């Protein structure tokens, strides 16, 4: 499954959330991540995210897509974090 | 599914916040460009072609996550791997595998299977191009003749000789399949021309892929059947690669050359031999990676499996054979 994750997290907790996201997904823009992830890994991630979040103030929005090729992605301006495995 | 990462540019890889931090740097060792993070949970293995700067903290971390790093030198030779601690140890399997190596008839029987699979897949390649207006009838009948002799062999060196003959006939047919490049003879260390470079480079990628799959099974990569198990090398990967080289490597070579994805300008010939330039390496590795990810419908499992997974299934079949559960049948391309 291919996901796009955006978060809005309070200043106190945002650094922890950033670090957690980096482990599972590719950073593409401030508070936006995307990448291929399995169902189980996503569950594992969500479990950890819950321990960081304050559910009354913070939010995570997840866009799911079955596969990357069904996502029409356009970049206008600078691509800040390209997603590639050829480095 | 976890991905392989291919590192071409000089980088410093370090452990940062329990994930991988990736900092490009220039020849002077100064940082060049902003650092990036690789999500560690998505990494299956690293293929290192450029220079990698790393410390033991990183290797400890890679080891914990079961990520292996494969290294290749400037001339595209496979030089070695960093392997995480074996996590699927099985003494029983080790003993069974060794017994199959030491008993001559058992070893020859297995070795024959590898060649049988390789010859079948080679023929499939040739027939494919024969049906596309390339005249390969002579090579096909020659290899078919060799293939019938496989079951008559009683010694491993004899079998290796036969395999050599098959390969020689096969490589001679490359001239017909690929327009614009000539093969001449198979040359190594260093390869003399473009086709030889691609074969060497591709084979090496195939060895690394096989080795990586063996690592995820209980087989011991140092005990092989067709190739002589030497020291300091993982020869079982060479055995397995025999079957997959025609499908993974040779088909990729035909594709990149016939579609002109790799051009003569991607090679440097000013040296004693010929080497692939950075641009050529990248294109080839990309095509190879796409090939590994490609899926086919498996007939007995009744689901889609990738070529990479086919290698793993081959390992499972092999382990079943040595444990005496089911006789090993080499993978033969069925489409």
Automatic annotation (TrEMBL), chain A:
GO terms for biological process: defense response to virus; maintenance of CRISPR repeat elements. Its EC number is 3.1.-.-. Its cofactor is Mg(2+). Gene3D superfamilies: 3.30.70.240. Pfam families: CRISPR_Cas2 (PF09827). Transmembrane segments: none annotated. PANTHER family: CRISPR-ASSOCIATED ENDORIBONUCLEASE CAS2 (PTHR34405). Homodimer, forms a heterotetramer with a Cas1 homodimer. This is CRISPR-associated endoribonuclease Cas2. The lineage of its organism: Bacteria, Pseudomonadati, Bacteroidota, Cytophagia, Cytophagales.
UniProtKB/TrEMBL annotation, chain B:
Pfam families: Cas_Cas1. Its EC number is 3.1.-.-. Keywords: Antiviral defense, DNA-binding, Endonuclease, Hydrolase, Magnesium, Manganese, Metal-binding, Nuclease. InterPro entries: CRISPR-assoc_Cas1 (IPR002729), CRISPR-assoc_Cas1_C (IPR042206), CRISPR-assoc_Cas1_HMARI/TNEAP (IPR019858), CRISPR-assoc_Cas1_N (IPR042211). GO terms for biological process: defense response to virus; maintenance of CRISPR repeat elements. Gene3D superfamilies: CRISPR-associated endonuclease Cas1, C-terminal domain, CRISPR-associated endonuclease Cas1, N-terminal domain. The keyword Magnesium applies. One of its GO terms (molecular function) is metal ion binding. It comes from the Bacteria. It is an enzyme of class 3 (hydrolase). Its cofactor is Mg(2+); Mn(2+). Mn(2+) binds at residues 163, 227, 242. PANTHER family: CRISPR-ASSOCIATED ENDONUCLEASE CAS1. CRISPR (clustered regularly interspaced short palindromic repeat), is an adaptive immune system that provides protection against mobile genetic elements (viruses, transposable elements and conjugative plasmids). CRISPR clusters contain spacers, sequences complementary to antecedent mobile elements, and target invading nucleic acids. CRISPR clusters are transcribed and processed into CRISPR RNA (crRNA). Acts as a dsDNA endonuclease. Involved in the integration of spacer DNA into the CRISPR cassette. Belongs to the CRISPR-associated endonuclease Cas1 family. Homodimer, forms a heterotetramer with a Cas2 homodimer. This is CRISPR-associated endonuclease Cas1. It comes from Adhaeribacter arboris. The gene is cas1.
């Amino acid at each position: 499954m291919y996901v796009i994750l955006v978060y809005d997290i309070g200043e106190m907790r945002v650094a922890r959330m950033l670090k957690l996201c980096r482990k599972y997904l590719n950073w593409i823009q401030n508070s936006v991540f995307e990448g291929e992830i399995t169902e189980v890994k996503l569950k594992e991630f969500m479990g950890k995210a819950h321990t960081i979040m304050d559910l009354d103030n913070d939010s995570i929005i997840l866009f799911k897509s079955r596969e990357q090729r069904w996502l029409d992605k356009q970049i206008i301006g600078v691509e800040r974090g390209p997603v590639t495995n050829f480095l | 599914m976890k991905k392989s990462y291919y590192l071409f540019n000089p980088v410093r890889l370090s452990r940062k916040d329990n994930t991988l931090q990736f900092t490009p740097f220039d020849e002077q060792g100064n940082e060049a460009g902003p650092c990036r993070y690789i999500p560690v949970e998505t990494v299956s293995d690293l293929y290192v072609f450029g220079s990698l700067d790393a410390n033991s903290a990183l290797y400890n971390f890679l080891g914990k996550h079961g990520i292996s790093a494969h290294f290749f030198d400037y001339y595209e030779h496979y030089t070695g791997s960093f392997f995480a601690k074996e996590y699927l140890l099985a003494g029983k399997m080790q003993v069974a595998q060794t017994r199959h190596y030491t008993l001559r008839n058992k070893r020859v029987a297995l070795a024959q299977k590898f060649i049988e699979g390789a010859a079948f897949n080679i023929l499939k390649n040739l027939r494919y191009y024969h049906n596309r207006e390339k005249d390969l009838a002579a090579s096909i009948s020659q290899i078919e003749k060799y293939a019938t002799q496989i079951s008559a062999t009683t010694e491993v060196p004899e079998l290796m000789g036969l395999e050599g003959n098959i390969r020689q006939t096969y490589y001679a047919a490359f001239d017909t399949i690929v327009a614009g490049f000539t093969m001449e003879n198979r040359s190594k260390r260093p390869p003399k021309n473009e086709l030889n470079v691609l074969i060497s480079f591709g084979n090496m990628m195939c060895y690394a892929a096989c080795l990586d799959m063996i690592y995820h099974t209980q087989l011991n990569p140092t005990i092989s059947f067709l190739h002589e198990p030497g020291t300091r090398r993982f020869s079982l990967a060479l055995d397995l690669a025999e079957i997959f080289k025609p499908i993974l490597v040779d088909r990729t070579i035909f594709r990149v050359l016939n579609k002109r994805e790799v051009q003569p300008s991607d090679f440097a010939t000013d040296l004693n031999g010929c080497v692939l330039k950075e641009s050529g390496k990248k294109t080839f590795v990309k095509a190879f990676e796409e090939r590994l990810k490609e899926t086919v419908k498996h007939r007995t499992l009744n689901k889609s499996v990738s070529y990479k997974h086919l290698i793993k299934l081959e390992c499972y079949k092999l382990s079943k054979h040595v444990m005496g559960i089911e006789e090993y049948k080499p993978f033969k391309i069925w489409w």
